[in-house]
Amino acid sequence: MKISEVEEALIESKRQHKSVPIPPARELREGRQSLRSGSKSPSVAVGRRVTRRSQISAALQEAATSRFVTYGFAATTIEEITADVGISRRTFFRYFKTKEELILSQFEDMRTMVSNELKKRPASEGSLQALRNSFKTLDSRPDIDRRRRLKLGALIDETPTLHGLMLLRQERWVSEIAQELAERLGRSPDDPDTRLVATIGYAAFQLAVYQSRAADSLDLAPAIDENFDRLDRLVHFA
After folding, report:
1. Looking at residue 107, what DSSP letter applies?
2. Cα angle at 72 between 160 and 80, to 5 degrees?
């Protein structure tokens, strides 16, 4: 089954709350057999295993998002999520330790994208400009991912437990940004200037997230530009 077919099945599950079929494990078993027989490259079986794992993980995230948004985080059980996807509770814990991790882990790819882009930005860019352009790369994510995170962002803000855990992750993200900026500038990792730039740059990005959510827009770039422009004016005004 193709990824698009998985997504279509998930959408139908939202409507009917029926089990979402996961692509069969036949190919994975064949890959393992080929490894034992030596008939195919190990990378083929590994690739199939990674693909299947990614499909199940995405199915769990999509089914959970649907239920969390419809019924609330606390009212949704792991058993209900796994029933929608068509896997066992035991299998769920091979992918996620808790419901909280199921939600918050979906934002890790955003941190990775921004971090990777920041490392590639030219040295000629100032720190704030490099941060601006790095955050804007988040608009390159697929629409289905961006819309899911838009819904989850509102859910996190409304759920005290999730909100507290998210704040801890954001604090770590700011620390990572500060360290990457320090490396760009050849400064100490605990340099207060880079920490300040990382903090205000992240604040401008976070405000853009709230603004986009309020406008029900998937595009972050316009709000990011607006907030960083405003930040530039305030810095020069001061």
Report:
1. G
2. 125
Residue 24: band (very low, low, confident or very high) from pLDDT cuts 50, 70, 90: very low
Q: Which domains does the chain have, with CATH numbers?
A: 3-96 (no CATH), 104-237 (1.10.357.10)
Instruction: Tell me how far CA of residue 104 lies from CA of 1, 52, 98, 101, 160, in angstroms.
Output: 27, 21, 10, 5, 13
Stretch 12-40: mean pLDDT? 45
Which of 150, 153, 132 minimizes the C-alpha distance to 141?
150
DSSP state of 40: S
Query: For the chain, what is the mean pLDDT?
Result: 83
Task: Record the pTM.
Answer: 0.73
CB within 8 A of 206, min separation 6: which ones?
Answer: 170
Three-state secondary-structure class, residue 220: coil
